[in-house]
């Protein structure tokens, strides 16, 4: 069942990322729907990634506690890489301050902004259906509206791509075990050059 | 006669153009009508990492605030 779900998800993601790399995929309305699907897919990836990293951090903390004991300088030193990574991800400091500069809040804000851009694109297409149906050459204003979400989500996706790479190097996340990673790779490959 | 045929052809072409533009409109309209929410919502929570992060902080030795580890590889705020 899990395999089947993964397979279906991967198929959707490949379609989504393939379409996102091509400015000419489908009707304007289809392009909007595919963009929404891509944003959803990134969200699912982020949730999977967060769970994987949390599991790694738990295991690191347990190892460090067994080795040094809690509340010791040795423990603090031992968990330092895990905490540093978590701070970059969440943007939360030890005193509970939320800097808002973490990768996760950045993804959340850029996703919201990308959805707003897609809503604006939908409204534009609906008001200019004839112009937006032109293909050779495509209507410039319409194309810009349909592509705006990509520039908006770019900081989130590219930040995510960098931190996923770090997580792989730390052993906190196994890309090969996650089919949704291919989706992120495709999307980031198109956006983060 | 020719005028009627031309009219029919023109109507068919217009139908094709219309279909090419409006295909998927229902799905897109449904997405447009949905309220904007943060996609990564963790079912209303903050996610797992932040919970583990807080647990680990609680197990650290006491130290003045602001001495938490800093990440040399932190990515700058892209916003």
List strands and helices in order, with pairings.
The complex is a heterodimer of chains A (193) and B (79).
Chain A: H1 2-20, H2 28-68, H3 73-90, H4 103-127, H5 129-132, H6 140-170, H7 180-191
Helix pairs in contact in A: 1-2, 1-7, 2-3, 2-4, 2-6, 2-7, 4-6, 6-7
Chain B: H1 2-22, H2 25-33, H3 48-58
Oligomeric state of shown chains: heterodimer
What composes the largest sheet of chain B?
Answer: none
Q: The biggest beta sheet of chain A, please?
A: none
Structural class of chain A: mainly alpha
| Helix and strand pattern of chain A | HHHHHHH
Number of helices of chain A: 7
Radius of gyration of chain A: 20 Å
Question: What is the 3D form of chain A?
Answer: elongated
What's the pLDDT, averaged over the residues of chain B? 71
Amino-to-carboxy terminus distance of chain A: 37 Å
Number of strands of chain B: 0
List the helices and strands of chain B in order.
HHH
Helix % of chain A is: over 70%
Characterization of this structure:
The complex is a heterodimer of chains A (193) and B (79). Chain A is an all-alpha fold. Chain A is 78% helix and 0% strand. Chain A is built from 7 helices and no strands. Chain A has helices at 2-20, 28-68, 73-90, 103-127, 129-132, 140-170, 180-191. In chain A, helix 2 runs antiparallel to helix 3 and helix 4 packs antiparallel against helix 6. Chain A starts with a helix and ends with a helix. Chain B has 79 residues and is mostly helical. Chain B is built from 3 helices and no strands. The radius of gyration of chain B is 29 Å and the shape is rod-shaped. At the A-B interface, helix 2, helix 3, helix 4, helix 5 and helix 6 of A face helix 1, helix 2 and helix 3 of B.
Q: What would a concise description of this structure say?
A:
Chain A is mostly helical and 193 residues long. Chain A is 78% helix and 0% strand. Chain B is mainly α and 79 residues long.
